Amino acid sequence: MKRTIKLRINGSEHELAVPANALLLDVLRNDLHLVGTKRGCDMGTCGCCNIIIDGRAVNSCLVLAFDVEGRDIQTIEGVTASADDDSIHPLQEAWAECGGSQCGFCAAGFIMTVHALLENEPQPNRAGIAEALGGNVCRCTGYKKILDAVELAAGRMAATT
Amino acid sequence: MARHPHDPKNQKQGLIGQPVPLIDARRKSTGQAVYTDDIKLPGMLVGKILRSPHPHAMIRSIDTRAAEALPGVHAVLTGQEAPNRFGVLPVSQDETALAVDRVRFVGDGVAAVAADDEATALEALSLINVDYEPIRAFLKIEESLEEVPDELKLHTKTVGNTNIHKQVQQDFGDVDGAIDAAKWSKRQRFLFPGVTHAFTEPLCTIAHWNADDRLTIWSAQQVPHYLHRALATVLEIPMHRIRVVRPTVGGGFGGKSDPFPHEMVCALLTRKCRRPVRILFDREEVFYNNHGRHPSKIEIALAIDADHKISGLDIDALIDGGAWGSFGVVTTYYNGVLANGPYRLPSFRYRGRRVYSNRPPSGAMRGHGAVNTRFAYEILLDEAAHDLGEDPADFRIKNALSSYTKTINEFRITTNGIVECIERACDASGWKDKKGKLPFGEGIGIAGGFYISGSALPIWWDDIPQSTVHLKIDYDGGVTIHSLAAEIGQGSDTMLAQITADVLGLSIDFCRVLTEDSDTAPIDLGSYSSRVTFMAGNAVRRAAEDMRRRIIQGAADVSGYPTELLVMEDEHVVSVADPNVRIPYLNAVRRAMKDVGALVTTGCYSSAPPMGGKHKGAAAGLSPTYSFQAFVVQTKVDLLSGKPRVTEVWAAHDCGRALNPLAVEAQIEGCVHMGLGQVLCETMDYHKGNLENPNLLDYRTLSPSETPNIHPILVETLDPEGPYGAKECGEGPLLPVLPATANAIWDAIGERFYVLPITADKIYRALLKQKKQGRYGKRPFSDQSEKSPAR
Lengths: 161, 791
What we know:
The complex is a heterodimer of chains A (about 160) and B (about 800). With about 160 residues, chain A is α+β, with helices and mostly antiparallel strands. Chain A is built from five helices and five strands. A five-stranded mixed β-sheet of chain A has the order 2-1-5-3-4, with helices on both faces.
């Protein structure tokens, strides 16, 4: 059974017909071609598919598209320097600079998790960052350069606000 | 907004040795990098594989009629249609696209379909009727040693009538004599469960047999060239009609370095239906595909003579290869031969046996073949040091192999930074102030390591260079780098660009690295055995130096100055004699193009023979150079729960030269993560051939909060044959992590663990026993001062 739903993603409205059991992850990747959000584990354990819904980081593989109608959804494609500046976000910049990604497959999920974290807590300490990232798996970095990147970005963002 | 370090304004020429962010880092942090599953082709079908529920069974028949009749199904495939065998090693061609007459593990592919969508594909699989006859499964490593009738052999080519896949024996010097005459000796068994790569990107392959009768395959691969060869074998078509594309790869660690059955299946399905087909694994399939580190039982004996020198090492490794050969013959050798460093061995004996079993295949994983033996060896060294009243660090220095020497099994050692690694790790960690002096429950440990920097001999013994790189410069001045060296996150694309830019005196943004496509890239053997920086790095340097000669000739033609005085720097060709001579790069390039068009150069690398001995297996572990490492690990054991926690790791690694310190540190840190995972929590648990934890929740890896402070220490010994002196840094740094951690746990609580992983429950039980025996809370080396007052 398909039903037409409206999704607000990265500030744009999308109207599309999806089946009742469609996962938000599949709708993002397959219907909307927002492939920056990755499928890693199919069961909410790796965080590669993390996106932000109403300010909270969420595993998009555990969410039905039907359930998020009318909610504010943000994916990695919607992360920019600011609402009216489409250049790269300081978090993404720091990620590149510090070596936050190696293979890069987990990067979008991590950045979405951190993005939501920094909205609520602009200056978290290192242990706090690590704890917030408990639902994200990276097998390349040993997490060190990821934590470096978050600290660098948070510092820079705090300095400019 | 901070200026980006890629901004040419931020970079001077002379890029070697500078921390350069990976050139694809922004693409990756913005979600723009394209992985295989991100590619959508028009009319693309979903491919799915039906998998065996039995660990070992004969296939009596397969009925696919109902699946073929299902609307939306475009192709159905069984193993009988593609019986050609393949495998990564020429000596172990024992895999087929799908099971032909028997299944060998739970998860083995039996049949496959291509359908309009996933739901249809899954329904089609459910309609395939396979008649299995379950037979005796070999699920314990010892069972595979038994003599069995032919029908119970997993493969025809085994040792005698057993399921032993490969047996090797090496014997140098008088090991028995050394043990008999030893001041200290011990024989100990160690047990290592299997662990797996758990890369974040699930395996994914897309194949399209197009109207031109050409096959294009996009696949998450570390070694596109071996996939290319295997496809030609299985499909019986010439290689030039196959194009292998490697999109961005989401982690490999050895787990994407075999040509895989699903890649063959994908190609066979598209040949049947002529539509693009995608096969994407779910996480459970990734676990069953495995190819991770072999479950191993290793018994080793170490002998120390009266001078406290190692006098003999005897290793007996029994490793579980699972259902297929994979890299296993190499693994069998590596478990022994890679113990020949970083310490001097006057006698060495090795027996290695790899068995086939009805478990998912084992294969190559970061630190391939060396990790488990290294653990066993370094634990016994630590025990010896303790019993002999030696400081474990000094004891290792005393026994260190020297530079420019030969090991007893005739490895050619060139540069060797083991002593500097030990000293610097000790200095940085405050070793002397901490060893044996921390409160009960806290400890510090050390271990060394040694690893190949590329295999001196290629897997297929033919005469082509191991790495070739092409460079092209056209009117725009950009440098296109063509290579098949597989970027899998380690930063090899950046390495290629960095060397090219350095030689040509350009900023790195002039370089465009195209390493994805076999149609355009010259052959490189790919990302395995830590070979890429050493081999492709040498190849690209040669190509760039040839390119520099051409451009300088162009500048000489423009300016009339002799080429001998011209160099390239800062996007100019300049005279070393006359600072007023500065010919802009583009002018020189365009002049050089005058009679030939685009400038095209090539460079290649082949390991220079002869090196190594003449004995059987002499080529295994032979490398043009070796990396060395020594790590100090500090740990804190929670005395209530037994939970061990590693707090600090001082990781000294001899990488020859750090071309890009940022990337070298990153490799070391990644190795620490993976090594700590194996020693503290990672394990593949089986019940009757079924993997019990085929997901990332139950297969526990280390979380961000459990990550210690990692202090990479880069030791640079400037290898004479490495590019700018570089050698590997991607695998060796994993080796010391495990034993250094176990040695630190011993320092903390006085307990040795010979079975991995060392989990809280094991420590808790050990502490409980200590309490019962009245030993709890005592330093393990309280009697050390009596034994060795000198220290």
